[in-house]
Amino acid sequence: MFSMGQACLVGEEGVAPHAGHAAWWMERAARAGHQLACVHAARLAWDGFLPDEQALGQPVRQASRKDDALMFARLGHQRGDPDASLFLVWLLDAIRMKADPERLEALQAAAEKGLPLALVGLADVEARAGASAERVMDLLSIPLEKNLGIAHYMVSTWYGQGTLLGQDEKKARHHLEIAADTGYVPAMALLGECLMVENHRPSDGGADDEGKERLRRLTRGESLLRKAAAGNGRAACVLGDYWSTIAEIPDIRQAVQWYEKAVSLGFSGAFFMSARIVLEGRSDHMTQQEAWTRMEQAAGAGHAGAKTVLSKKLSC
To answer: Long-range pairs for 148-151 at CB < 8 Å and ≥24 separation?
Structure first.
């Protein structure tokens, strides 16, 4: 049953991939006691695929089957499958279930089996609970060795802020560079932003060297931000800021495009900046009323600059 489920998941010779048929086989295998089938059944249930014995038509996908997903994930966790344990942690977070003891127990079970992401999660939990730097870094040894982007990003943050680890700008940058190279989006966004800021600092070299270095930073910074901006609102907003206020020749059209991308991702800073350039008369991509509404949305999301603008408006 499990082998048929696998064949239907990925497609093998003589078997076409079909999520509904895979769900049917995986659920049968899980109920029959197969340890590894549980996590596949849980994921397919979460994705909303209905078990289909015949698999004659297209897979039927409906609303997420959350209860079934939890049931199968818990079953796999109880049977000792670390992937099921880790998926259970993810599920509990995704549905915002108040189950801290269960979440921690599942996370510890997955970490004990050496799953890098589980070790990162446990390191984060223990760091927040006041564990020593030695304990936390020991947990992260495998994820760091495997160049897991999120692990290097966490270490970079600790070095940069001087919280868990002693503040060290060079080490912070070293781990941030590694995290960005792995394609970890928050790291790409932050490194791109750093490069854009550094691009406006004078260098120690001559005029030619400085020009080349600024071009290198600008090119790499913009490239990283563009990649990250697909799903990172801050990265998109930084690009908007660059074209609206930093570039030697501002391009408001490009700035608006990036601000609107960031707005679509819910980033409050983009709500503020896109409204601001309209209220300052630098763009007409929305009406003044729409700009004030957007400014209110930014303030409602906690943006300090938007709150100040609205406060001044009310006092006039």
So the answer is: 148/116, 148/117, 148/120, 148/182, 149/178, 149/179, 149/180, 149/182, 149/183, 149/184, 149/187, 150/117, 150/120, 150/179, 150/184, 151/116, 151/120, 151/123, 151/179
